[in-house]
Amino acid sequence: MKCFTDWLFNHTGWLYKSILQNSIFYLDYWSIVHFSSGAFLLLLFLVIRLKYSWLYLSLILFTYEIIEVLFKYYNLHIFAPETFKDQFTDIIVGYLGALFLMFVVRNGILNKNRTRKLHEDHILTSLVSSGTIVFIWIGFFNTQYNKFYAPDAEAFNWLVFIIWVIVLIIIVQLFVSLTKILKNKFHSFLLTWCLYLLIFLFIFELPILFFNYNPVNVISQKLGIFLFFNPSTVNNIFYLILPAVAIVTYELLLKIRNTAIKNEIEKRNIYQ
Length: 272
Hints:
- This protein is mainly alpha-helical and 272 residues long.
- The model is unreliable at 148-152 and 222-227 (pLDDT under 50).
- The protein has helices at 2-12, 29-47, 53-73, 84-110, 114-149, 158-182, 185-211, 215-223, 233-271; strands spanning 18-21, 26-28.
- It contains 9 helices and 2 strands, in the order αββαααααααα.
- It has a two-stranded antiparallel sheet with strand order 1-2.
């Protein structure tokens, strides 16, 4: 048990880095997790048509903070000790995530311009899905890489985050555009994946193979960042399946969002 808790704490330590704090609030990278959790929980409640969704959300948010205190009390080193200010902020940020989700859902209901609505759906969903993938990836891989190869580097590099989010959004939007043209999601998926592999091969592999030159590493060194992390088997596999991860996550999130909007519309029609 201790080995597991030590491993978990070691791999989530980067989440405790402070972003902003004052006498009332304390924001760290855990705040991003709590914001996303609040939004995702409410989205899940809307999909399964759970009554009193805000009550259940409140129960989960407060219970989570109580569990953190119990872990500390029983000396289980899964979470770092937090002050009341930290826990208060976590709950508020969770509610803000849920409110953001409700804004998105209601905007989807009230927006009567179908073309604009579809465009906003694709952009927002691709942004959220890409951001989630890259946040987890950079957090858990880049921080571990930096511990050994660049101990002075930032725990979470926002420039790398932005670059990879843009890459994933381009992949997703290419898939969406090809789907409109080919009228076939599977063919569009395969074509997007092939184009990604060709570009990846041309930029990353061929210069090394023929010229013994790695342009990505040169750019990374000049910017002081790691665009490609530890070249392990796991990471190499992840680079290869990245388009699949991005597209599947996007499609799943879009379907869940549309189901939530549909359920809210039906709920409103019942009470009208």
